[in-house]
From TrEMBL:
Signal peptide: none
Protein name (Swiss-Prot/TrEMBL): Conjugal transfer protein
Length: 240
């Protein structure tokens, strides 16, 4: 699958200006005697990004068809690549054994309605100011301040200033005991331009800061009258 993805990076990117270079690169992948441009007539352009192995159909001990996913412009597509595999004194070797085929990618899945959990309004009110302080210092990287919001003995890495906390958009706190799994939607401020030490480069070249909304799942624990963060990770599907 890795071999097919490498091949796709060459095969799916072409223009008349790089025809000779593309042919030379493809020779490392295709079987001897095959068309060195693999069916391209030298005209037109195609560009592919986000190339990833997607699926494999093994037909026997030596042959398989690998499907590679890629993006071109606004479209997601698939590339089907027939591969031959051999072993021997020269080690494990692969070669493209036939014509590739571009195919439409499947449409996005239909997401069913998720059940909203019963929420604890009192705990939510208690948690919001704690979480705002946590995320503010989680973004800035102020380790001493961050420790005020996490459970004793817990050490969490931070963004160290890569983002700035803008707002806590929402919190979903299900009913439960002293330890809860909660979800928080946070808005980060993304810097609009990388800082420059050259005055001429910085003058007039900056772009506006952006805002990026993201969702997190946190394990929180109540100790006394305060809540503390024990763990943070991606939220998965947010239902609140």
């Amino acid at each position: 699958m890795a071999f097919a993805a490498q091949f796709a990076g060459v095969y799916l990117n072409f223009s008349p200006e790089d025809a000779v270079s593309r042919s030379s690169k493809l020779s490392a992948f295709v079987a001897e005697g095959m068309d060195q441009q693999l069916g391209w007539d030298g005209n037109g352009k195609l560009g592919a990004v986000a190339i990833q192995p997607y699926d494999i159909e093994v037909t026997d001990a030596n042959n398989a068809v690998v499907t590679v996913a890629f993006q071109t412009g606004p479209r997601r597509l698939h590339l089907s690549v027939p591969i031959y595999y051999s072993t021997g004194d020269a080690g494990r070797r692969f070669v493209v054994s036939g014509w590739p085929a571009i195919l439409p990618a499947p449409a996005p899945a239909q997401l069913p309605q998720a059940a909203v959990p019963e929420t604890d309004d009192a705990a939510t009110a208690e948690l919001k100011p704690q979480l705002e302080g946590f995320f503010r210092n989680y973004a800035s990287g102020n380790t001493a301040e961050l420790q005020r919001y996490v459970t004793a003995g817990t050490s969490l890495p931070s963004f160290a200033g890569a983002f700035t906390f803008a707002e806590l958009k929402s919190v979903v706190v299900p009913v439960g005991g002293a330890t809860r799994e909660i979800e928080a939607v946070v808005v980060w401020i993304v810097p609009g331009a990388v800082a420059s030490t050259t005055p001429d480069a910085a003058a007039g070249s900056g772009t506006a800061d952006g805002r990026l909304q993201q969702a997190y799942r946190l394990t929180v624990e109540k100790q006394g009258d305060k809540w503390y963060v024990d763990d943070i990770r991606g939220a998965g599907r947010v239902v609140g």
